[in-house]
Design brief:
With 152 residues, this protein is α+β, with helices and mostly antiparallel strands. The protein is 23% helix and 41% strand. The strands form two sheets. Strands 2, 3, 7, 8 and 9 form a five-stranded antiparallel sheet that branches. A four-stranded antiparallel sheet has the order 1-5-6-4, with helices on one face. A hairpin with a 2-residue loop joins β2 (14-19) and β3. α1 (32-47) runs parallel beside α2 (70-88).
Length: 152
Amino acid sequence: MPVYRLAAEGNFQFEYLDHTADIQIHAWGRSLEEAFASAGLGMYNYMTPLSDVAVDPACTRTFDVEGHDEQSLLYNFLDELLFVFGTEMLVCREITVVKLDRMLWRIHAIGKGEHFERGRHSSGTEIKAITYSAMQITEKENDAEVFVIVDI
């Protein structure tokens, strides 16, 4: 099983699209695994620029998330990343999707980054919640995209 790793090194695979009172993250990759990782990095980057975030080996975190379909898996994955940011102040600069199980709708990922520190890291816009509103996931051979609206 291949490992899909994305690091925020200026070659981002996400963008932000305006949406009434919220923001839409459009993320993509060569696979669904990469698109999910890109969406996670896009979410973190919106809260604090990833160019200011280093990788501290002590700040490596495993994410094991389940859903009942593709959309709930994306929602739950991003929600878990957001929860960890809110409770542990961990900002991931790299996300590695180790496994995405389409039979059981489970994802196993590893995030690497550092703890957010006010004064040292720039504060972007707070993301309050992930939404299902207008969520889209498309996948073709060697190309996957996700659109997810987050509440700010």
